[in-house]
Amino acid sequence: MRDTDKSEAIVSRTLRVAGIYTSGTFTFGCLLGTARQLAVAPALGTTTALVVELPIMIAASVGMGRWCLQRERHDLRQPSGWRWVRFRCPSSF
Question: Which residues contact 25 (CB under 8 A, 6 or more apart)?
Fold first, then answer.
């Protein structure tokens, strides 16, 4: 396998995992924000509702990140593989 093929495969895999992570986290945040505005904010106030939501959202982000890495069978102890990626810059700089 050529270096170019490796870098394209790494970039493709990375973008796929990033898309899954982003869409999952965004969807959960929208649902949680809606629940916060409709149920928690009227009872506790806006600021308190945000303080209650924050640790839940952080935990969801960490959990989604772990799930995405486990789904792709990514070993965190291994190098990321970005050393194979060569960015092409125009020579006019």
Answer: 60, 61, 64
What confidence tens digit (pLDDT) does each residue in 30-75 have?
Answer: 999 999 999 999 999 999 999 999 999 999 999 999 898 888 776 5
Determine the pLDDT at residue 41.
94
Q: Is 1 exposed, middle or buried, given 0-12, 13-18 or 19+ CB atoms closer than 10 A?
A: exposed
Per-domain residue ranges of the chain: 26-72
Question: In angstroms, rounded to a whole number, what is the distance separating the alpha carbons of residues 60 and 31?
Answer: 12
User: Which carries the bigger pLDDT value, residue 6 or residue 17?
Assistant: 17
**HSE of 67, CA atoms in CB hemisphere, 13 A:** 11
Can you give the pTM of this predicted structure? Answer: 0.69
Query: How many angstroms separate the CA atoms of 5 and 7, rounded?
Result: 6
Could you give the CA distance from residue 48 to residue 77 in angstroms, rounded to a whole number?
39
